[in-house]
Specification:
34% helix; 4-stranded mixed β-sheet; 2 domains; 4 helices; Ribosomal Protein L9, domain 2; alpha+beta
């Protein structure tokens, strides 16, 4: 069945597109929810008007996204997390953690826009992308720090290394008087 879309529908089309869908999908979902119309001359004119309005809204939204991406681009962010002595995190740092840290800095970014695959599981510096739209992407630097300072190498190991580095003193086999 051919229908005219009134709104953008993910994986189907944009407002104003003429799409071919199964009759059950049209009768049970698209038509009752007002997402599509049966193509006719009056509906074609109406959908063209909707398409023009949608283009203006998309353009305005894209400009807003680009402005937000520009303010975030190059931002340096740090997050503290619990870690063991080797720098491995107990758990991980994911997009939700980054979104909370950005919110604390005054930026409202949904965690769905933060591309972070796989989750961070070690202390260090990472480059992240925040994708508002295809043309609006911000790159930030994320530093994951331990909540408590990592202990240095144990003293016994340092002493052993120092002894191994120093030349061994020959011991004389003669009895000392």
């Amino acid at each position: 069945m051919k229908l005219l879309l009134q709104r953008n529908i993910e994986k189907l089309g944009k407002a104003g597109d003429l799409v071919e869908v199964s009759s059950g999908y049209a009768r049970n979902y698209l038509l009752p929810h007002g997402l599509a119309l049966v193509p006719s001359e009056a509906n074609l004119k109406r959908v063209e008007e909707l398409r023009a309005v949608a283009r203006k809204q998309e353009f305005r939204l894209l400009q807003e996204f680009q402005a937000r991406a520009q303010t975030l681009d190059g931002l340096e962010l740090s997050i503290k997390a619990r870690a063991n002595e080797l720098g491995h995190l107990f758990g991980s740092v994911g997009p939700a953690d980054v979104a909370v840290a950005l919110h604390e800095m005054g930026f409202d970014v949904p965690d769905q826009n933060i591309s972070l695959e796989p989750h961070i599981k070690e202390i260090g510096q990472y480059d992240l992308q925040i994708e508002f739209a295809d043309e609006a992407v911000a790159r930030i630097k994320l530093t994951v720090l331990p909540e408590t300072p990592l202990p240095d190498a144990p003293q016994d190991l340092e002493q052993d290394e120092q002894q191994a580095d120093s030349p061994a003193q020959p011991q004389s086999l003669e009895p000392s008087d």
